[in-house]
Amino acid sequence: MNKVFLETAEKQFLYYKQLGEKAMEQLETEQLFQAWHEDANSIAVIVKHLWGNMLSRWTDVLTSDGEKPWRERDAEFVNDMSTREELLGKWEEGWNCLLSAIRSFTPEQLSQIIYIRNEGHTVMEAVTRQLAHYPYHVGQIIYAAKMLKETPWNSLSIPRNGSAVYNGNKFVKPKERRHFTEDELDKD
Predict the structure, then answer these.
(1) Closest CA to 76 of 10, 85, 181, 67
(2) Which one, of 137, 172, 106, 158, lies nearest residue 41 by Cα?
(3) What is the pLDDT of residues 32-61, one digit of tens each?
């Protein structure tokens, strides 16, 4: 069962990574750095925060606290990037750190206690915690991208008024055990 958890967690993380990428791809570079007002975060700032969190949480996850002394969380909310390439570089670096950690775990390690800000979590609890945190921010990226996009939005899921067709395609297939993200991840 723990092996299934790790496989499922990886698929979920990859799915949300892909959603964020598909949202950002729909924007002009300057839109990635726009915020509605001074208290709002641009997509670039959200990406920078995800990057900082992922590096801190998943570097040496089994042997050091997830809140690293070198992390400067407050600085994550100040945009100092100016190019799409730099933004996507941080995006990839953060996700690669996370995914490398997930792929390195053995099922037996899921019950091992690790620490985040001196609070003990099992590895499974830490993974679950981030499965809530990262999609929360990816949702912010998608929402901001939809608001900023000046041309029609390309749906990232079932298009509006497309549920009947989508469900019809699902129910003509035989029942099988598979993760819901497999269709989405197989598209690329």
Answers:
(1) 67
(2) 137
(3) 999 989 899 999 999 999 999 999 999 999
pLDDT band at residue 18 using 50, 70 and 90 as cut-offs: very high
Q: What tokens appear for 90 in the block? A: 């941080």
Among 144, 161, 150, smallest CA distance to 35 is for: 144
Supply 142's token pair. 């998608």
Q: Provide CB contacts within 8 A for 56, sequence distance 6+.
A: 66, 67, 68, 71
Specify burial of residue 142 (Cβ count, 10 A radius: 0-12, 13-18, 19+).
buried
Q: Evaluate if residue 121 carries a pLDDT over 50.
A: yes
Query: Is 124 within 8 Å of 86 (Cβ atoms)?
Result: no
In angstroms, the first-to-last Cα distance of the chain is 28
Q: How far apart are CA 179 and CA 114, in angstroms?
A: 28
Query: Which residues are CB-neighbours of 120 under 8 A, at least 6 positions away?
Result: 113, 114
Three-state DSSP at 73 gives helix
